[in-house]
Amino acid sequence: MLVAGNVSIYQNKKYGALLRIQYIAEFEHFNMTGATTVLKPFPQESIKLDQFRTDVIEGLTAKRKKLLSKYFYDHRGDQLFQQIMAMPEYYLTKCELDIFQNRTADLASAICFRESPFDLIELGAGDAVKSSFLLKFLLDQEADFTYRPIDISGNILSELGERLAMQLPALKIDSLQGEYFEMLRQATGSNNRRKVVLFLGGNIGNMEIGEAGLFCRELRSHLNAGDMALIGFDLKKNPQQILDAYNDRAGITAAFNLNLLSRINRELGANMDTDNFSHYQNYDPETGACRSYLVSLVRQQVDIAGNRIVFEENELIDMEVSQKFSRQQIGELAIRSGFMQLREISDSKNWFIDALWMAGH
């Protein structure tokens, strides 16, 4: 699931990246005046529903049943995820916020070791709660930079722009609405300034290891030598602590997963009985993969958009992966993706790190 306070996410199927799509309209380019320039059309609402139907049917008729975690986030899913982030067991949000609140100077010095002007580009900016601490520090240090948040939601970007205009009036902001890499391509092609890309919240962990490698190589392909990426990684730690974060006693995470079945019923006219499924969480401390499943408690048949789907008793639906990393894995991922790792900045408990990478030649 998404972590560390960014409420906007979108899943790119090619890379498996959890990044969220809820508002489908047009790609728009917002500036500080509130003016809007349409860049290109985005699929209409009917196409969005068609894609949801296609993804659900493909996933549930596959040999290994699977649902895409990008569809967790309807209105009810948003509410449940906010409750998850507020749980005492859910450490991820607190850990990265600790870094941005208490190690801001370290972040800034690592980013600004060159005094040249730069663009600070945040993928999936959301409410920018964490990055706001860095933005303020950079402004106080009179760094020459432009903040360029990227998000799929125009509403979120508009609200973010208004809030930052009040809180940080000296900030230069140029927001981009759309899919990450398309907007990153536009951002990196618009000028010759140095680029620093933020990909926070441990969102890299919402990909399988191979998908994370593809994502990072794609990210590198949009950057020039000397550009940087600051990426958040949740570290491997006590297995029980990780399980507690994703399998809370209050059952909020279970409700979060089961809510997707309710969404399928509501939007696709299905007849899935949520009482016939239960949530199961598994963590493999060797691989670092923390996986969410729904388990069919009985043999059952369900009808979804004209398709009859059979679930055997104890059959699993693969819902989501939350990958944890060792420091060695992070360094190896950087090298394989065409980056050099410059620095690791950790929270006070050494549970989470933001790794600063530089694009190599």
Structure notes:
It is a single chain. This protein has 361 residues and is an alpha/beta fold. The chain has a single domain, classed as Rossmann fold. The chain is built from eleven helices and 16 strands. The protein has a nine-stranded mixed β-sheet with strand order 4-3-7-6-5-8-9-16-15, with helices on both faces. It has a three-stranded antiparallel β-sheet with strand order 10-11-14, with helices on one face. α2 packs antiparallel against α10 and α4 crosses α5. The chain is globular. It starts with 9 loop residues before the first strand and ends with a strand. Keywords: Methyltransferase, Transferase.
- Percent of residues in beta strands: 25-35%
Helicity level, as a percent range?
Answer: 25-40%
Extract low-pLDDT stretches: 2-44
Q: Compute the number of strand runs.
A: 16
What's the structural domain tally?
1
- CATH domain class: Alpha Beta
Q: Write the CATH homologous superfamily.
A: Vaccinia Virus protein VP39
Protein name: Dimethylhistidine N-methyltransferase
InterPro entries: EgtD_Methyltrsf_superfamily, MeTrfase_dom, MeTrfase_EgtD-like, SAM-dependent_MTases_sf
Keywords: Methyltransferase, Transferase
GO molecular function: methyltransferase activity
